[in-house]
Amino acid sequence: FTTYTLTDNKLLCDFGILNRTQEEIWLYRIVDVTVTRTLFQRLFNVGTVHICSGDRSTPEFSIISIKTPLDVKEAISKKVEEERTERRVNASEFLDMDMHH
Q: CA–CA separation, 23 vs 25, rounded Å?
């Protein structure tokens, strides 16, 4: 059982049924959001949203078989850009910083 929550500055991922684990990815650290859909998935308007980030604990993950994946991708991308603008950072800045640590 997995749930995803998009806040103003984080993407929260809650995993598990009895034992719950929560991962958080700061939106400004997300570098790429991709949607893949098979022919069968397109017929039912579902797909997989794959996210790559500069986060050390969660560098990439997929939200599998989600409804309206293109809308989800756009919502995440919009929030990422808003957060980067607010923080005045771009993806290359924090990726370069992580490489030096």
A: 7
